[in-house]
Every structure is written in C-alpha cells, then in structure tokens.
From TrEMBL:
Lineage: Bacteria, Pseudomonadati, Pseudomonadota, Alphaproteobacteria, Hyphomicrobiales
Protein function: Catalyzes the synthesis of gamma-glutamylcysteine (gamma-GC).
Gene Ontology molecular-function annotations: glutamate-cysteine ligase activity
UniProt keyword annotations, A-Z: ATP-binding, Disulfide bond, Glutathione biosynthesis, Ligase, Nucleotide-binding, Transit peptide
Name of this protein: Glutamate--cysteine ligase
Subunit structure: Homodimer or monomer when oxidized or reduced, respectively.
Entry annotated with the keyword Nucleotide-binding: yes
EC main group: ligase
Organism: Phyllobacterium ifriqiyense
Domain of life: Bacteria
Length: 457
C-alpha cells in the first residue's frame, strides 16, 4: 500500500463500517482490474541486496523515478518512500525489505494491465541499470539472510517489525523476504461480493500451486515449492488465513466487519505521525481504549480504511476484493494472475461454473488443501482429486470467461493468451518451483546465483 488513508469522518456505529464496504459496489460496466506486483532489487555485481540510502540505493531509484514520471512523492519523516500518480491512477511503494511495488491503475482489460506492467518495468530499468541494479521476480528471497536484508525507513513497518515476533515465527520473513502478485477486483452488490469471495477463497490454493516460485532460502532448497505461502501459515493467525465464516450461505459485509473489529490494530495516524496501537482491537478503540494515549482519539473512517489494509486473509475485502495467494514471478506471470481471476470472476457463465465446481467444498477441506499446497504444489489433493487435475478444469473455466469477455487488442487477440504460462505448468505437470529445483541440481551446479540472471527484470 503506497499511502495510508486520511479521512476524518467520525464513526458513529458499526453499521457505518459495513456501509463503508458496501459503497464499493459498482455496476458491471464500471468494473476494473488493479494489479500489484513486487520484485527484489539487487546489485548485479554480487547479487547483493540494495539498501535505502547511498548514491546507488533505493532512495536514488525513487528520486530518479520521480524526476522521470513527475509523480507526487510520498514522504515519511523526511524520507521518500513512494510515488503517487497525480490523478490517483497508480502508485509506486516500498515493502519492508526494499521490495519495489507497482500498485497499478484501475484498468479495463488485461491488455492494458500488461502494457502498464511493461512500461513500469522499462521505466524502472532505465533508472536502475545505470546504478548497477536489477530486479528479481520470485516469491521468496533466495539468497540473503534476514540480517542481510535492508530495512526501509517507513514508520508503519517499524511498528509491524516490533509486533510480528509476538504473534508468529515467520512475520519478519513475510515482511522482508517475500514478494507477491495481486489483483484487485470489483463487485456489484453484497450478493456478488459473497459469490466472488467464496469462489476465490476456495480456489486460492489452486492459484498458489500454479504460481509457486519460492523453493530457495539462504542459498539452498527449503523443502517447499511456495515458501512464501508457507510463511503465511505462521505470521499472525489473528489476521490471516482462511476465514471460516466466509463459507456461510448468508455471509455479508457485516460479518467481515465483526471479524475485523476484533483483530488487534497496528497503528493510528494523526497529523502524519504513527502511534503504535498493537495493544488494542478496533472494537476497543471504538469503545474509548485510546482516549488517554493519542490525540483526537475518536475513530474515523481513515482509521478504519487503514485497519482494513493491515488484515491479511487469503482474500481481503475492502471496497474491492484482493486475491492474495500468488508468489511473485517473471513478467508473464504479472499478466497471468489478473487473467486467471478475471476469467473466473468477471464473466457470468464462468462464475456460475466455478461456483458449481466448488459449491460443496467445506471449510475443513479448503483449509487442509491450503496447508498442503506450499510443500506439495500440484500433487496436493482435495478428496480424491489432485490440484493438478483441479487446476486443469479451473483454467478451462477461466479461459471460457476471458473468451466470453471478448476484449480484443489492436491485433485482434482476446485475453486468453495471457493464461499460456499457467497452461504450460498444467501441461508439464510440475510447478515452476520444481523446474527451478531441477536446474539447481543440474545446470546451476547447486547454486542459486543463476536465478538472478534467469528471473531478473
């Protein structure tokens, strides 16, 4: 998230919190696609991490991007930590370990998403390459220890870094050593939100397997295919994972609000300053728990929006839905992730088919699958079917949805070809992580260094 929200509208009751979510509803004609992707910057001479400061640091990249794009800088205690397009159509931000993120503009088609990603990567290369910096497209940092990984000067990350070890063993790994690709999608109503949320939660592990690309840690195989996904199993279970109440047939905005109210907060921002609020839930905040510890202690809608951004379930609900199951990866995957979910969720025939396929999947089954996939990938099973078999069917539904959308580019091609890298995974029967492990054991000579060549932007 590039910039934390400021909205001083006071909150009177919890009904207003549900209404805040419901206000995200849009007619189908206004549905858009917002794609986010992260990548690890590294120095090419030694494949070493890039610190924030210095003439060849992250700050220098951001300042170069600001000069090139003319975007508005985001400043935190005197440090540039991101850029925002002046009309709100996209942003560049930093993750805790220096991971460089583009939060894309809300776009109509995957063609536009791919052009946006390609333009961003070209722009950032133009600034970074003269500094001897490139970017790695993987789901997990394959080489650097946590101690070797730099820390970005962003106030909310200081609060999170102090809090994470108290609630799970992998929170700092999540913050500093993982990258993801996400897509943000719209809904038209509470019913439409429910259907899309339920289908996408059930199928999130299928996406995790298809996008698995984090098999190395600190220079060696880690025994997993998606280390990034495994990390989320013990980061902070108060705010992450598969949420059981989403499976209820009448699940709605108010249910998500009730859950979110009882999750501990990270911070409250007042006059540009971050106040550590990890000792209270949002419900306690609303009941006056911070009245003696922060200025202007009445909760406002900016506080609520910021709190929602610090929740990390498999699919996150804000005024749109965020698909959170995929590892970071190479350029083709940046286009494939939104194509996969748009095909499933933005076409009525495809959504009906995906809903029919998953209708009787229970919370317990989905949770068990989610626990298996990081290690087993396509070989994990739900009932008597492998993820490999399920993924083939799901991709067929996604392809149907993209074909039905009939969004053509200037050459007359629809959006289905963006699924080709995922179709290759299914045709091969092995994840990209397994392909990397095979290379590691053969042509890479038991070294992860070649990954910095093969998966660099």
């Amino acid at each position: 998230m590039a910039r934390d929200t400021t909205d001083e509208t006071r909150i009177a009751n919890t009904e207003e919190l549900a209404a805040h979510l419901a206000e995200g509803s849009k007619p189908e004609s206004a549905w858009r696609i917002g794609t986010e992707h992260e990548k690890f910057p590294f120095y090419t001479e030694h494949n070493s991490p890039v610190p924030y400061d210095g003439p060849r640091g992250i700050r220098a990249i951001l300042e170069g991007m600001q000069s090139k794009l003319g975007w508005e800088p985001i400043i935190d205690e005197g440090n540039i930590i991101g850029l925002v397009e002046p009309t709100g159509q996209g942003a560049i931000s930093l993750e805790p370990g220096g991971q460089f993120e583009l939060s894309g503009a809300p776009l109509l088609s995957i063609h536009q998403t791919c052009r946006e990603s390609n333009a961003h990567l070209a722009q950032v290369r133009e600034i970074a390459e003269p500094l001897g910096i490139r970017f790695l497209g993987l789901g997990g940092s394959p080489k650097w220890t946590l101690a070797e990984t730099p820390r970005m000067p962003k106030s909310r990350y200081n609060i999170m870094s102090n809090y994470m070890p108290k609630v799970g063993k992998d929170g700092l790994n999540m913050m500093y050593r993982t990258c993801t690709i996400q897509v943000n999608l719209d809904f038209s109503s509470e019913t439409d939100m429910r259907r899309k949320m339920q289908v996408s939660v059930k199928l999130q592990s299928i996406a995790t397997a298809l996008f698995a690309m984090s098999p190395f840690t600190e220079g060696k195989p880690n025994g997993l295919l998606s280390w990034r996904s495994e990390i989320w199993r013990d980061t902070d279970n108060n705010r992450s994972g598969v949420l059981p109440f989403i499976f209820n047939e009448n699940f709605g905005f108010a249910d998500y609000v009730e859950w979110a109210l009882d999750v501990p907060m990270y911070f409250v921002m007042r006059h540009g300053r971050y106040h550590d609020c990890t000792h209270v839930t949002f419900r306690q905040f609303m009941n006056g728990a911070l009245k003696d510890s922060i200025p202007e202690s009445t909760p406002n809608m900016g506080d609520w929006a910021n709190h929602l951004s610090t929740l990390f379930p498999e699919v996150r609900l804000k005024r749109f839905l965020e698909m959170r199951g995929a590892d970071g990866g190479p350029w083709r995957r940046i286009c494939a992730l939104p194509a996969f979910w748009v095909g499933l969720l933005y076409d009525a025939e495809a959504l009906n088919a995906a809903e029919a396929m998953t209708r009787d999947w229970s919370y317990e089954e989905v949770q068990a699958l989610r626990d298996e996939v990081p290690a087993k990938g396509l070989q994990a099973k739900l009932r008597n079917r492998s993820v490999h078999e399920i993924a083939r069917d799901v991709l067929a539904i996604s392809k149907l949805g993209l074909r039905n959308r009939a969004m053509l580019n200037s050459e007359g091609f629809d959006e289905t070809h963006y699924l080709s890298s995922l179709e290759e995974v299914v045709a091969r029967g092995t994840t990209s992580a397994e392909q990397m492990l095979s290379q590691y054991n053969t042509v890479w000579g038991s070294s992860v260094e070649p990954a910095f060549l093969e998966y660099a932007y």
